[in-house]
Write a structure and sequence with these properties.
Number of helices: 10
Distance between the termini: 35 Å
Low-confidence stretches: 1-16, 25-43, 235-247
Order of helices and strands: EHEHEHEHHHHHEHEHE
Number of domains: 1
Mean pLDDT: 77
Strand order of the largest sheet: 2-1-7-6-3-4-5
CATH superfamily: Adenine-specific Methyltransferase, Domain 2
Structural class: alpha/beta
Largest sheet: 7 strands, mixed
CATH architecture: Orthogonal Bundle
Radius of gyration: 19 Å
CATH topology: Adenine-specific Methyltransferase, domain 2
Oligomer: single chain
């Protein structure tokens, strides 16, 4: 059974309740629980450009009936765990705050937002061999600018094994080579469309709790947190920063 968690969907919330929400995410204290029903909800605005573990693109038709359209969000649309951003790109809000603790992911979004054509020109010139993949993956980024870092992580995402997103204990992307088949599924126009959506958003690297502590009246928050790591993941540096997203929570913020 799959579930969508709707917190305070029809009630009013006091400012102090935000701490309970933060604790509840990882303590599994679900507030209002509703099963997801299959619907014929049509998706019109899908933007596909990255592969992300636990992304919600295939679940949009179940999630969207519980989320207001952009015209009904009076404040900001906020995602503290933006990941692949499927919900954001689909509803296309007028104003948004997108954040994640994954610095590579934030670089990817920022680079495309600022200059998608420059990112594409770098991306298309990366090598098309297994050897070249590992050279790019293991290269020193100390002196590289935002656009190169953005294009690089997009290249790794499109050509790594099954679109996995994994870092070692040093914070370095360490997924093996997967091939070129998925690389050219995207094109320059896709990045331009992504940039147009991202121009409405403030993008920043941040811990989710800092974002939730800075909410304002009228904000709509979609929270899609990772599972709390188990002992195996905590003990194995190979998976130490792996983000596997499964639960999702919807919060409609109205202060007393």
């Amino acid at each position: 059974m799959s579930y969508i968690l709707k917190i305070l969907s029809s009630s009013r919330m006091k400012v102090d309740d935000r701490n309970n929400i933060i604790k509840g995410i990882y303590n599994e204290k679900y507030y209002i629980l509703c099963s997801i029903k299959k619907t014929g909800f049509a998706m019109e605005n899908q933007v596909k450009f990255i592969r992300y573990p636990g992304g919600k693109r295939r679940l949009l038709k179940y999630i969207l009936p519980y989320i207001p359209s952009s015209n009904y969000i009076t404040g900001r649309y906020i995602e503290p765990f933006v990941g692949g951003g499927s919900v954001f790109f689909e509803i296309d809000p007028q104003e948004a705050l997108l954040s994640d603790i994954n610095g590579d992911l934030i670089d990817l979004y920022k680079g495309i937002k600022r200059d998608p054509k420059k990112v594409w020109n770098i991306y298309k010139n990366f090598p098309d061999t297994k050897k070249g993949y590992y050279e790019i993956r293991d290269s020193d980024l100390t002196n590289e600018d935002l656009y190169y870092r953005s294009a690089r992580i997009l290249y790794l995402n499109r050509t790594c094994f099954k679109g996995m997103w994994r870092h070692n204990s040093d914070g370095d992307f360490n997924v093996g080579y997967g091939g070129q088949d998925r690389r050219w599924v995207i094109n320059k126009q896709n990045l331009i469309e992504v940039s147009e959506r991202l121009n409405k958003a403030l993008i920043k690297k941040s811990d989710f709790s800092n974002v939730l502590n800075d909410l304002e009246e009228g904000d709509f928050v979609f929270i899609d947190p990772p599972y709390k790591p188990g002992k195996k993941e905590m003990d194995n540096a190979h998976y130490s920063l792996c983000q596997v997203k499964q639960r999702f929570i919807v919060i409609d913020i109205t202060f007393m």
